[in-house]
């Protein structure tokens, strides 16, 4: 219930496992003023795209004539429509103005982008900026002591006797630098603290072990099979870190929501295709990049983040994926 003429702060959270969502409110614009707990320069849009795990703070001006208006969300999906993989459900709720009037029937429904509109899906992400003022300084590292390039992939993993429900009896798995994480029986931090050997290795590669055209339309089936391991990358305390997450087109490709426990990071760059370490850093935003803790790597694209490793503990990059 809203009052005409007032402005409301909405906190919108995507609690989905894997799917990004287009969200809009009929006949109303929304102004994004924060993401993941950090202020942003005001960004006014008819809709937002919010990826799994992300939080958006938006201002809603109740400036339309009193009535009922749908707020609605649909899935942004790259699944082929003809294979009946895409769920075209539209979820709705109603913004209701307070007062005495006869509401429209049915309520007004917002216009949302097509479910597979990739350009629409990145419009908000591409436009976010930190406040970067005297009260809210932007402390993005201008130089880095540690540079990492991580491929993020959807892989096909074999099952005993082809017993899983994925293609050819396999199951889906996620990998970073072609390593699918194997959960140990002893907590990694506990093993580190008590110097217990054999729980994990500290040789997680800084660059992809195998370099190929990550975003090619057709990739050898050999690359679909990841290795498994409990590998750790140890960072020096207070080191400045840059990670480039490079998406691949393995198993048809996917968007990859990435979250970094214990830290927020600055999103200094992103793009489609293969990351070019000579060209792309020249386009980084080191003035007012958004400060977030969850970002989505576009299908067949890349995202670059920077942060200071100042929170002792285990940083775990999580990639959303589906097991079948």
TrEMBL record:
Pfam families: Cu-oxidase (PF00394), Cu-oxidase_2 (PF07731). Keywords: Glycoprotein. The keyword Translocase does not apply. Gene3D superfamilies: Cupredoxins - blue copper proteins. InterPro entries: Cu-oxidase_2nd (IPR001117), Cu-oxidase_C (IPR011706), Cu-oxidase_fam (IPR045087), Cupredoxin (IPR008972). Residues 2-99, 225-314 form the Plastocyanin-like domain. Belongs to the multicopper oxidase family. This is Laccase.
């Amino acid at each position: 219930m809203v009052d005409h003429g007032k402005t409301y702060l909405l906190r919108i959270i995507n609690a989905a496992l894997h799917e990004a969502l287009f969200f809009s409110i009929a006949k109303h614009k929304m102004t994004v003023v924060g993401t993941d707990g950090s202020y942003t320069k005001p960004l006014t849009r008819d809709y937002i795209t919010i990826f799994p795990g992300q939080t958006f703070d938006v201002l809603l001006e109740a400036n339309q004539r009193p009535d009922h208006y749908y707020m609605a969300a649909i899935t942004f999906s790259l699944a082929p429509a003809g294979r009946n993989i895409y769920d075209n459900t539209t979820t709705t709720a109603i913004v209701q103005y307070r007062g005495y009037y006869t509401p429209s029937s049915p309520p007004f429904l917002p216009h949302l982008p097509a479910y597979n509109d990739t350009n629409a899906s990145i419009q908000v992400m591409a436009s976010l900026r930190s406040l970067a003022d005297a009260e809210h300084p932007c402390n993005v590292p201008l130089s880095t002591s540690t540079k990492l390039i991580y491929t993020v992939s959807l892989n096909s993993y074999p099952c005993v006797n082809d017993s899983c429900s994925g293609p050819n009896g396999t199951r889906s798995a996620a990998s970073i630098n072609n390593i699918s994480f194997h959960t140990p029986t002893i907590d990694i931090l506990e093993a580190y603290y008590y110097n217990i050997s054999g729980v994990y290795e500290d040789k997680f590669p800084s660059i992809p072990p195998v370099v190929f055209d990550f975003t090619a339309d057709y990739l050898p089936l050999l690359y679909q099979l990841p290795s498994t391991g409990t590998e750790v990358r140890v960072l020096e305390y207070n080191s400045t870190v840059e990670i480039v997450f490079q998406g691949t087109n393995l198993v048809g490709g996917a968007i990859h929501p990435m979250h970094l426990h214990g830290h927020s990071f600055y999103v200094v760059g992103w793009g489609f295709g293969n990351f070019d370490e000579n060209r792309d850093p020249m386009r980084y935003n080191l003035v007012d990049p958004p400060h977030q803790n969850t970002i989505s790597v576009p299908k067949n694209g890349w995202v670059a983040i920077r942060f200071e490793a100042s929170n002792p503990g285990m940083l775990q990059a999580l990639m959303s994926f589906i097991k079948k």
